């Protein structure tokens, strides 16, 4: 089977549907990839989508989208709740099938070089692709945001050493597959969600690979979780930990939601862990046996 | 996507590898189906395998296997622990994708007619395909086994009204997908497994669609479960029920095992149920998005 990667570019436009659709359509110009899961948010004034396919085709597709975003978005007029430093804000490559992290890092470098040279936008490499420790964490690269870029501009990995007049800068990198998992508590008390989020997030000494925030959504407290490495902490493990912590505060879990895509391997791992089915493997799934040999 | 069914024929030979392989090879003569998961057992003196493909191709494949089994197995010489009435003992058709139970019943009738007419073996239709209430349950059809067939022969659905001189009779039918799920308890006390099995099996007032027995396997008590309808009782629900019952007897679950194949829909349902992720659907599984539209 061929190599498959995923790319989830984020752009600083979440209000003007014409612009959002133009960027999405640009990615679709490359016919050999699948472009889907377009999401946009007015408050964040930001959109993102997923590109899946063989590595070089995904690179070509996301480059088309970046070119269009560079033409249509003016960061000098951009306002939104979400931190951002550029029209194309962040572009992560993610190994999905038969591809190593190293190959995704090389792809990030290739895209970075192309964006720097052809579009004259400074590019910072982050996470697995980072060349400097201080650029590893996306939040650190974005500190000061677009407005702060001009004054704190350190040497980017590719492109000019000054921000692009309308597109700012771009953060490109490689990371593991990220599972978005929300847990809704049976209480309107957002403080409880915030306490639980703080207890489980890695940064505060919680579970490895876990990022978490507490929100109020549709009148209920929600623990919104990003699992950056499901091999370390999977959704089922996060669920049980939240359940345990909520239980101590006499709160029940009302529902949960896997947001967006999830790799089959994470489902298989959850069955192995939660039901102690150590020998279970993806090859036992009937539908899979219809296509592979 | 095309219609897909599964067929799991059982034959009365579990010792002579030459015969087992000949039957398996006969099924493989039809190149458009997948034939796999060959299992055989000396004590039961019985083998079975799985055929997956489009309905009429699966029918052609299993008919080849039945023809070969009829030639090579002499029931007058057969001994084994497992109940059986024929060389080809039982042939269930199972809907997998885009196929209704009704279509599988019609397929069972088609195969039954063909086996009766072309091989001169009496055929009884069972379970969803049964034409008589007393033939619905496989255990009832097999009562008295091969040896008792001659004396209690009632009118079969197809074929002659007397048993085939060497092949006996065949039971053909249609049923839902069956998940085999074993739960190993952290105790050597088989009586505990038997108590739990009795408490969860439908026949004794337990969970719908659940068949269960208690065994001792590798020195540990095992609850061996067949889930005849995972939409009613899925493996995760059976796991939690066994866990609860074991807990009352101060016994822990050591491990579990999904034996053989499982439909993706059962995995998806387990995530929905166990983690209250009501909105989760198979379309969110990344690998699936690579192939369908």
TrEMBL record, chains A, B:
One of its GO terms (biological process) is L-histidine catabolic process to glutamate and formamide. The keyword Ubl conjugation does not apply. Residues 177-289 form the Formiminotransferase C-terminal subdomain domain. Its EC number is 2.1.2.5. Pfam families: FTCD, FTCD_N. It is found in: Cytoplasm. GO terms for molecular function: folic acid binding; glutamate formimidoyltransferase activity. NCBIfam families: FtcD (TIGR02024). This is glutamate formimidoyltransferase.
């Amino acid at each position: 089977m061929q190599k498959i990667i995923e790319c989830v570019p984020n752009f600083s436009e979440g209000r003007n549907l014409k612009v959002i659709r133009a960027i999405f359509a640009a990615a679709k110009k490359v016919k050999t990839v699948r472009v889907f899961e377009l999401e946009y948010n007015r408050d964040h004034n930001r959109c993102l989508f997923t590109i899946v396919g063989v590595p070089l085709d995904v690179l070509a597709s996301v480059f088309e989208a970046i070119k269009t975003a560079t033409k249509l978005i003016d960061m000098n007029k951009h306002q939104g709740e979400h931190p951002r430093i550029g029209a194309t804000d962040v572009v992560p490559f993610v190994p999905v099938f038969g591809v190593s992290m190293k190959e995704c890092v090389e792809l990030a470098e290739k895209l970075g070089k192309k964006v720097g040279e052809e579009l004259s936008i400074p590019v910072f490499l982050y996470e697995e692709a980072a060349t400097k420790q201080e650029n590893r964490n996306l939040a650190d690269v974005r500190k000061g945001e677009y407005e702060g870029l001009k004054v704190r501009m350190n040497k980017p990995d590719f492109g000019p050493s000054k921000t692009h007049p309308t597109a700012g800068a771009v953060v490109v990198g490689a990371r593991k597959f990220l599972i978005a998992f929300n847990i809704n508590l049976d209480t309107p008390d957002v403080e409880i969600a915030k306490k639980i989020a703080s207890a489980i997030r890695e940064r505060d000494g919680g579970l490895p690979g876990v990022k978490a925030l507490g929100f109020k959504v549709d009148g209920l407290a929600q623990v919104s979780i990003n699992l950056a490495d499901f091999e370390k902490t999977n959704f089922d493990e996060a669920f049980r930990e939240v359940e345990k912590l909520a239980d101590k505060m006499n709160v029940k879990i009302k529902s949960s939601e896997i947001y967006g895509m999830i790799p089959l391997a994470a489902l298989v791992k959850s069955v192995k862990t939660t039901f102690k089915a150590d020998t279970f493997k993806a090859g036992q799934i009937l539908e899979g046996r219809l296509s592979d040999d």
